[in-house]
Amino acid sequence: MCGDKSKVVNYSDMYETSIDYNTYSQQVTGFDGEGQLTSAMNYVISEDMPILYTLEGHEEAAMSENMKETIQKANIEIQNLNLLTEEAVPEDAECLFVFAPAKDLTEDEANKIIEYLEQGGWLCFEIGYDQGEALKEMMTEAGYGQVKIIKDLAGRDRVAIGQKNNNWNAL
């Protein structure tokens, strides 16, 4: 606890577990007490938490609980953003995450995202397992700096991230 901010670390959050679907039993696979406590301490002493906005309004896939927990453990706040109803990407956006939309964005929405990116904003989106290298090449050719493809737990390409100008250390 620090001032008005506090964070409780549950005992169960300190252990990483997996489920054996053959026996329907849960097994401890790792200990993350240090990571959880460090995250909690950083949260209570940090004045400003970065905000990751997730685009909504296009029947996007739901973000998995595991992904949400990983992002929140890094002390990044997650908020939803609908550019059909908002004038622009908020100024406090550290990153805009487009999570597998099923419908196309409107031209107006695309222009709002382009404006955000032209001001140095970050773009992050979920990709198909076989799209990483082609997408990285396409983003690099389009002027994105520090394009990175992040793999999922199974080792497959899952997320692409990049910024229109080279300010990689900000995220």
Explain this structure to me?
- A 6-stranded mixed β-sheet has the order 4-3-5-6-8-7. The chain has a two-stranded antiparallel ribbon with strand order 1-2.
- A hairpin with a 4-residue loop joins strand 1 and strand 2.
- With 171 residues, it is of the alpha/beta class.
- The protein is 26% helix and 28% strand.
- The relative contact order is 0.12.
Short account of what is shown:
The protein has 171 residues and is α/β, with parallel strands linked by helices. It is built from four helices and eight strands; from the N terminus they run E-E-H-E-H-E-E-H-E-H-E-E.
Number of separate strands: 8
Shape: globular
Major pleated sheet: 6 strands, mixed
SSE arrangement, N to C: EEHEHEEHEHEE
> What fraction strand?
25-35%
Average the pLDDT over all residues and give the rounded result: 81
What integer value in Å does the Rg equal? 18 Å
Structural class given helices, strands, pairing? alpha/beta
Low-confidence stretches: 166-171
* SS element count, helices: 4
Q: What distance separates the N and C termini?
A: 25 Å
Task: Enumerate the strands of the largest sheet in spatial order, edge to edge or round the barrel.
Answer: 4-3-5-6-8-7
Please give the share of residues in helix.
Answer: 25-40%
List its salient traits:
alpha/beta; six-stranded mixed sheet; two-stranded antiparallel sheet; 4 helices; 26% helix; globular
Write the layout of secondary structure elements.
Blueprint: E1 15-20, E2 25-31, H1 33-45, E3 51-55, H2 65-73, E4 77-81, E5 93-98, H3 107-118, E6 122-126, H4 132-141, E7 145-151, E8 157-163
Parallel strand pairs: 3-4, 3-5, 5-6
Antiparallel strand pairs: 1-2, 6-8, 7-8
